[in-house]
Amino acid sequence: MTYTITLGDYVSLTSRGYFKRGYEADTDPVEIADEYQVFLAQFGESLTYRPRAGAARTILAVVERDPPERLPDGGMGKVIVIHVANQATAVADDEYGGISLDELDTGGDKVDVPVRVGQTAQTRTIVRLIEQDGGMLALEVR
Question: What confidence score (pLDDT) does residue 96 get?
Fold first, then answer.
């Protein structure tokens, strides 16, 4: 499985490697895991993850904020995608924190995330696992 995170013309991260300004840096799985951590450290935001079962904890996530889109019920909603480390740790235990695939409960877990940069965080539901690999999860939040 391959997914790509692109932030402007500067950085793209895929499950096959970390690219900076169009140049592939590494494709070795161990090095890719290290690069996910670099990516989170450079572009991540501190969010509060609220699992349905368990205590809330601080995690680091890259947040993509898309424009509002029409929801199945006919209303409008803001789609947010968060990219987190695929590991069940808090920032206090590991400087990157994360959510493991094993603990993820879509529809039950929530995350406190600002809808716009600089705003107060709102508690939103994690509704769908978009993509995954050994290093990261991409999660849809509404």
Answer: 72
DSSP code per residue over 11-42: EEEETTEEEETTEE----HHHHHHHHHHHHHH
Q: Which two tokens stand for residue 81?
A: 């995608």
pLDDT for residue 128 is more than 70: yes
Q: Which segments of 2-123 does DSSP mark as H helices, in order?
A: 29-43
Question: What is the Cα 17 distance to its own chain's centre?
Answer: 17
Greatest distance between any 2 Cα atoms in the chain? 45
What six digits make up the tokens of 103? 């603990």
Q: Could you report the per-residue pLDDT of 5-51, keeping only the tens digit for each?
A: 554 433 445 443 333 333 344 455 455 556 777 888 889 999 999 99
CA dist., res. 61 & res. 44, Å (int):
5
Taking the alpha carbons of 54, 58, 60, 63 in that order, is the dihedral positive or negative? positive
